[in-house]
Design a protein that fits this description.
about 250 residues; alpha/beta; six-stranded mixed beta sheet; four-stranded antiparallel beta sheet; about 25% strand; globular
Length: about 250
């Protein structure tokens, strides 16, 4: 299969601190790739590089067959529109209603009328298990799990080819974490079949991953299926996994 996203020997640091030390990974069409790692391991940096929100210090990033590392903001726009990005905090606009938050990409990038926009907003909210009762509410009136789902609906409404999830279960209780994990699986089966999920959550990884890449000290210490990574005998890998298994 052809890779739709390729990261090739990418290096990224901030001031004197190296974060990614020559990482390479690829996403194939139709798979969910989970990038695991601890806090500060560079998972979110990698995701932002793929979305063109950061530029690498060295290496190449190809998205839909096009090298993006030297593209201008204007040149990146059509590529970003093919990506759905779910931020860790959901990144909703506090002063906008849920309807207006989800509608925002359509108002910015299409010429659809308000009636059609509302229809699509209702549809995509329904896909993530939210009904019309939330439309006029503000983000602060929703639970953390509901805000995450609104963020997913907003990312999906542009009908992206790839979804990028940044710590989708961070800050959620176990019940909401399970709901979001099941939602990611559901979206992968029927709405957007290719995704990259960055997380430190082992249970989420077990639920959603077709393939796992474990990022430790700026490099991928293990890659493969969940079972393959769990069976890796590398000391650093086992130390990380042991930490995730603790109650």
């Amino acid at each position: 299969m052809d890779a739709i996203i390729e990261v090739i020997d990418v290096v990224k640091g901030f001031e004197a601190t190296p974060v990614l030390k020559g990482v390479s990974i690829a996403l194939e069409k139709g798979e969910t790739l989970v990038v695991m790692g601890g806090s500060g391991s560079g998972k979110t940096v990698l995701l932002r590089l793929i979305a063109g929100l950061l530029r690498p210090d060295a290496g190449q990033i190809r998205v839909f067959g096009q090298n993006i590392e030297e593209l201008s903001e204007e040149e990146l726009l059509p590529i970003r529109r093919r990506l759905g990005y779910v931020f860790q905090s959901a990144a909703l606009f506090d002063s906008l209603t849920i309807h207006d938050n989800v509608a925002y990409p359509l108002r910015e990038h299409t010429r659809l009328g308000e009636e059609e926009i509302r229809r699509r907003v209702v549809h995509f909210l329904s896909l993530v298990g939210l009904n019309e009762g939330v439309l006029e509410q503000l983000p602060a009136e929703l639970s953390g799990g509901m805000r995450k789902r609104v963020g997913i609906a907003r990312a999906l409404i542009g009908e992206p080819e790839v979804m990028l999830y940044d710590e989708p279960t961070a800050g959620l209780d176990p019940t909401n974490s399970k709901t979001v994990a099941e939602l990611i699986v559901q979206m992968g089966e029927g709405v957007c079949d290719s995704s990259i999920v960055v997380t430190h959550d082992l249970e989420l990884t077990k639920t959603v991953a077709d393939r796992v890449a474990l990022l430790i000290d700026g490099r991928f210490a293990a890659t493969g299926t969940v079972d393959t990574v769990l069976a890796t005998r590398d000391d650093a890998v086992q130390a990380f996994l042991a930490g995730k298994a603790k109650p």
